[in-house]
Amino acid sequence: MTMQMNKRIVLSLGVLIGAMTLSGCVERRIVITSAPSGATVFLNDAEVGRTPVEVDFTYFGVYDVRLRKEGFEPLVTTAKASAPIHEWPGIDLLAMMVPVTKKTRIEWHFELAPADADESALFERATEMRAGFEAETAISDN
Predict the structure, then answer these.
(1) Of 21, 29, 56, 142, which residue is least crowded by CB atoms under 10 Å?
(2) CB-neighbour burial class of residue 30 (10 A; exposed 0-12, middle 13-18, buried 19+)
(3) Cα angle vertex 82, ends 79, 86, to 5°?
(4) Domain limits of the chain?
């Protein structure tokens, strides 16, 4: 190897190491709102606050979401946090070399339905469910 080639290799390594030390940061936030606001929010069975609420997150993917507010039906669902292109595998390594903070903000909004306050309708639904359960139990016993 020539001296010129060695200098190029050392210079290239120096630039690469320098770029890695100046790497950027990542901020990831999930923003959850609801109508009406003030609902208690649980993400993957952990209470995170009342809407509107912002929480940090580490992993992209599907989250279990529960919202609860007095006078409204509880909401149990899932929501997906999708990775932006600068977070895709492979691209994320290159993106981290750019010395800026990358901000990812996922926004979820949920509508809560008013609770059914009609006690006679509730009693009727419970009676129907009991009859259905008893019929299933009778069939499985035979």
Answers:
(1) 142
(2) buried
(3) 160
(4) 24-116
* DSSP-derived pairing of the beta strands 102-111 and 26-35: parallel
Q: Which residues contact 123 (CB under 8 A, 6 or more apart)?
A: none
The tens digit of pLDDT for each residue in 24-51 reads 577 889 999 999 999 999 999 999 999 9
To which residue do tokens 């509730």 refer?
122
Residue with tokens 């923003």: 31
- Tens digit of pLDDT for each residue in 80-96? 999 877 666 765 665 56
In the chain, the amino acid numbered 129 is M
Three-state SS at 71: coil
Q: Is the pTM of this model over 0.70?
A: no
Tokens of 103: 């901000």
Please name which of 105, 128, 115, 119 lies closest in space to residue 31, comparing C-alpha atoms. Answer: 105
Using CA atoms, how far apart are residues 100 and 89, in angstroms rounded to an integer?
18
| Cα–Cα dist 110/37, whole Å | 10
Average pLDDT (91-112) is: 77
**DSSP 8-class letter at 114:** B
For the domain made up of 24-116, give the CATH fold: Immunoglobulin-like (2.60.40)
